[in-house]
Amino acid sequence: MGDIYVNARFMNQVVTGVQRYAWEITNHLRDRVHIIQPGKSFSGEAGHFWEQIVLPGRMPRNALLWSPAGAGPLLVSKQVVTLHDIAHLEHPEWYSSKFAAWYRWLLPKLTRRVEHILTVSEYSRSRIIEILNVSPEKVSVVNCGIENHFFQVSPKQIRRVRQKYGLHGDYILSVSSISPRKNFERIFKAWKIINTKYKHVSLVIVGSRNLAFAANKELGKLPERTIITGYVEGQDLPAIYAGALSFIYPSLYEGFGIPILEAMATGTSVVTSNTTSMPEVAGDAAIYVNPYEVKSIAEGIERVIEEKKLREELEKKGKIRCKQFSWKRSSEQIWKILSTYAE
User: Lowest CB count within 10 Å: 43, 125, 136, 250, which one?
Assistant: First the structure.
């Protein structure tokens, strides 16, 4: 078997779900692969130059490259690329025009040239095949996993993070980047409908505002008892989940949705969207809402606040459900596929 190299451009990027996948799988495979990481001068947009021009020159002849973070060099044909979703092709309005244009140009060429494509859900696989006109045999699904520390949260840890972030009383939680596809405009509208009825409950959002959020006047007016934490240390996140009454994730579009598993692992009930990959991830362990209807989101939140028995049932089902997903298992599946193409 030939050598396998990892395109580690993701190591210079802000960590979202895509980068977390890349870090987790790479860490599990670290002893079996060679990692090529750009220097710090190739952060941001300069990373495109590094990936397309510098990286191919560093690849040994006949070695296989794995690009795990949604893009890869066109000059390396012996390559397996992971595409988490193709939201930038289906919904360019959610991104900057420059970002959307780059991927609209890159992905059709890249998917034709590489040897194989990995993705994280059956939903994403179906969209890649249809939108990019890729042969079904060329695309394999390997799910994301869940980090072990989400399963081990103590009451002491919950008390500490509540105090640290000023989280008093019951709260409904949302964890994500605050970008258009995460649907915060409708979340806020839903919360405005019901928050006067539940004065003992707050809405807590873990995430940082992006430019699109800041430019939206509707999102600038936070409803009563709404807390945006800003940056949260990774070690505090499991306890914030565990302390919540419920976790809401009515996203408009997800290739997978790692936060669903994070909430379930901490024993917190989940309200999520009935669209894209989210039913595939959550199974029978969530309340589903129509993310395009404010009333549906409001009703989902009301149900988890009012129906304690349902909430407890979802917590038990979620604990079982999330154990089906493992970074170790996923890394072994990916290694098997990479090994096939490295021969």
Answer: 136
